[in-house]
Amino acid sequence: MMGKWTADNSEQIDGKTSRSICDAIGERLQQSLRPDTSRLSSRLQHLMDELRRRDGGDRFGSSR
């Protein structure tokens, strides 16, 4: 969506505004679609925790 985007030929959105809107939508989708780790079995949760530890951090936002 680079350049100008036209809605009903009456409003124009510049590239910077369009990018900001896309980024905001993407952030909301990531939050909404984030996997719910609280439903994992205790064994699978343990394995996920071990994977995070070996990967060097908690990038996935552990629910503990």
TrEMBL record:
Polar residues bias locations: 29-44
Basic and acidic residues: compositionally biased ranges: 46-58
Region feature (Disordered): 27-64
The protein's name: Uncharacterized protein
